[in-house]
Amino acid sequence: MSTTYAAPSISPSSNPLPETNFLAVATAAINRGFAVTPVHPLEKRGVFWGQYRHPAKNLWEVTQHAKDYPNHNVGIVSRRGVGNLAFLDIDADGVIERIEAETGEKLPLTYTVQSRPQSASFKKHFYFRQTEYSFNAFGRHKSKEINVKDLSVEGKQPTLFDLKGVGAGGLVVAAGSIRESGETYTDNGDVPIAPFPNWLVNWVLKERDRYRSDAARLREKVKAQLMTAVQPGGTLVSKDHIRTAIKSRVGTFASLGVRRKTIERLVKEQIEDFIQDGPAAAAAYKEFIHEEAVNPKLRIGRLRTELLPKLPPRTMITTTPDGSLIIEMSPRRHEVMKEAIKTFPNRLKTSEVRFRLTKALSKQGFKLTGAKADDRAITRAMRRAGYSVTGRAGSEQVWSKQSGQSKSRRTGST
């Protein structure tokens, strides 16, 4: 028997669609032992940046969230680790049948949620417990979330399935949440969660590797077609291939640590220079280039030190407008603090210490944010310089420079 969730009553004039009762849905999830987080009502995106490391795990936390997000959907979150949840998210019709046909196995009975029970019943979230075998097979502490798309479709390829919760963090929407269309996520009742079958782990890994290989071949094919586009009489590149080329080039520049605004400019210029009717194509895909360049999921890389093995540590590398590199030594933060403290008077308050260090560090591009780690760094630097807390001035501590004699007596030196 499926679990039922009571949505709050609404007046037809105020909102034609029902709204999720966050407290009711999250409470049901907590009672099952799940970790939860608020999810934007019209999206499948969590509210908090730290949702995977610090999800709500008890009713007190859920009650606090319900005050701020009373009608938000609920996300079930997990991350890599033996015993943690893993979510096999099926997004395409026929994937379940293919899994069972190719493996000769039947998916075990486990807790399952349908995300679109009326309009697309094949869309399901299968919940599994990660095992020692699955944890090792997916890469242990270096494992990542898995997404496999349908490469047979030109343009924006739809997802076939995702495996979430086996990497740094994954999220699925909980049963009882309500979609923007009005459909409610439904589960299959009070069914226990099965351990992740070894045979299913092997199938997922095989599909992941095949997808990566096919995607790499597709990128090479697109590159070859793009090369013919700049030859005399070359054929026009299809719009789908231009989109693929833009995504690929944005990712390449990002991996090199190029700034987002610069990525946007460079990709536009390359479309103009290396595609037939380039200026028109660049204008047509201006918005798409911008979306890809500012995509929050795009990871901006850093200069890899192995590419410059002869550079000493504490080397700062900048670029001039013409693209040449400027390499110069840059002091570390603790070295800047050490030099600044040498100019301090023998007695000063904590606020004066922070003000002086903030000023000195800002000149070298460092910041003090007020975090506990910064406070500990200041304390270490002051003590190493021979200062100690000797009293208070109102609510503030007072630091005093210790003489060599008193310092020796304090440490027990002779």
Features:
single chain; 414 residues; alpha+beta; Arc Repressor Mutant, subunit A; 7-stranded mixed β-sheet; 13 helices; 15 strands; 38% helix
SSE diagram, text form:
Layout: H1 22-31, E1 35-39, H2 59-68, E2 73-78, E3 85-90, H3 95-103, E4 112-114, E5 124-129, H4 132-137, E6 146-149, E7 159-164, E8 170-173, E9 186-187, E10 194-195, H5 198-229, H6 239-255, H7 260-274, H8 278-284, H9 286-293, E11 315-319, E12 325-329, H10 333-341, E13 347-349, H11 350-362, H12 372-384, E14 387-393, E15 396-401, H13 404-411
Parallel strand pairs: 5-10
Antiparallel strand pairs: 1-2, 2-8, 3-5, 3-7, 4-5, 4-9, 6-7, 11-12, 13-15, 14-15
Helix pairs in contact: 1-2, 5-6, 6-7, 6-9, 7-8, 7-9, 10-11, 10-12
What does this structure look like?
There is one protein chain. The chain has 414 residues and is α+β, with helices and mostly antiparallel strands. Among the domains are: 22-209, no CATH class; 333-411, Arc Repressor Mutant, subunit A (Orthogonal Bundle). It is 38% helix and 17% strand. The protein is built from 13 helices and 15 strands. The protein has helices at residues 22-31, 59-68, 95-103, 132-137, 198-229, 239-255, 260-274, 278-284, 286-293, 333-341, 350-362, 372-384, 404-411, and strands at 35-39, 73-78, 85-90, 112-114, 124-129, 146-149, 159-164, 170-173, 186-187, 194-195, 315-319, 325-329, 347-349, 387-393, 396-401. Strands 3, 4, 5, 6, 7, 9 and 10 form a 7-stranded mixed beta sheet that branches. The chain has a 3-stranded antiparallel beta sheet with strand order 1-2-8, with helices on one face. A 3-stranded antiparallel beta sheet has the order 13-15-14. Helix 10 crosses helix 11. Residues 6-14, 231-235 and 405-414 have low confidence and may be disordered.
